Amino acid sequence: NYGRDDCLVVPGARLRGDPDKDVSLAARIEYNAEDNTVPVADAGLQHVVSDTFKWCVDYAVRDFRIWDYSSTPAGGRGNSEGLNFARFQYVELSFEHHPIDWFAWSPFVRWDIRENELDCAGGWFDLLTDCLGFRFIIEYENAYTRLNGSEYDRDWDFGFFIYLRAFGSGASDIFYRKTR
């Protein structure tokens, strides 16, 4: 939704390389020629230490309008123009451990570079069967001020989902990393 009136073609690139059998590097970038900005940029490194352990570090930047229509008084709280932007820059460190065949877990911490403070910390654990995975997620998000000046209090998020192991967890991974 980078265009204001019509659809806008946004050139971009996604690169992934494996300089070593245990190391993956990846990057993604999009360029908005209309505003001469880089609305999306990501870089990541993954190191597979063993069959049961890997760690990752990711860097992400977002700076774009979430939807391309203007807010209206009838649109409700969620349709406020001040909430219509994704603007952040962070670095995230995580690792993933599969100590046994039916269990996996992964903690992470995300640091907000623009605010120079903790943005989010959490983790997940999976209970695994032959074909299904059951993921439990817990996450703490630090308080912050939105672009429109409104305050967001710190918050705990909890989640659960079931996935087919043949297709992976479905967790958003722009880098298409190697999976176990």
Would you mind describing this structure in some detail?
- The protein is mainly beta.
- It has no helices and eleven strands.
- It has a nine-stranded antiparallel sheet, with no helix packed on it.
Write the layout of secondary structure elements.
Elements: E1 12-20, E2 23-32, E3 37-50, E4 53-65, E5 85-100, E6 103-112, E7 117-128, E8 132-141, E9 144-145, E10 151-152, E11 155-164
Antiparallel strand pairs: 1-2, 2-3, 3-4, 4-5, 5-6, 6-7, 7-8, 8-11, 9-10
Helical residue percent band: under 10%
Strand order of the largest sheet: 1-2-3-4-5-6-7-8-11
Shape: globular
Using the CA coordinates, give the radius of gyration: 19 Å
Q: What is the structural class?
A: mainly beta
What is the β-strand count?
11
Low-confidence stretches: none
Count of helix runs: 0
Determine the mean pLDDT.
Answer: 80
What distance lies between the first and last C-alpha atoms, to the nearest angstrom?
A: 35 Å
Largest sheet: 9 strands, antiparallel
Question: How would you describe the oligomerization state of the chains in this entry?
Answer: single chain
Spell out the helices and strands N to C.
EEEEEEEEEEE
As a percent range, the share of strand residues is: over 45%
